Amino acid sequence: MCPLPLAAAAVAAPRAPLRLLGRGLAAAMSTARPLISVDYEVFGEVQGVCFRMYTEGEAKKIGVVGWVKNTSKGTVTGQVQGPEDKVNSMLKCSGLI
């Protein structure tokens, strides 16, 4: 279920671990497939609408890891990591691509 169509742009976000998604990098690394990492920033009405909680829940369902945080600019930045097909699925579901 992907109810939040949002405009987004990939950016170089800080890599400090904040709100973790999924069960950690070890869970993503348990696969033989190559892993990718994508940094993102989401613009629009994303603060105060449970976007971070939604993102965390979807990440757990899909099986990717990463972090997400609100910014002082009113955007949300984050990073998602895992096998390419799962990362792409997460980005599509969250409206990032």
TrEMBL record:
Gene3D superfamilies: 3.30.70.100
Active site: R52, N70
Pfam families, alphabetized: Acylphosphatase
Entry superkingdom: Eukaryota
Catalytic activity of the protein: an acyl phosphate + H2O = a carboxylate + phosphate + H(+)
Name of the top EC class for this enzyme: hydrolase
Hydrolase listed as a keyword: yes
Domain Acylphosphatase-like span(s) in chain numbering: 37-97
Keywords: Hydrolase
E.C. code: 3.6.1.7
Annotated GO MF terms: acylphosphatase activity
SUPFAM superfamilies noted in UniProt: Acylphosphatase/BLUF domain-like
Family: Belongs to the acylphosphatase family.
Protein name per its UniProtKB record: Acylphosphatase
Source organism of the structure: Saimiri boliviensis boliviensis
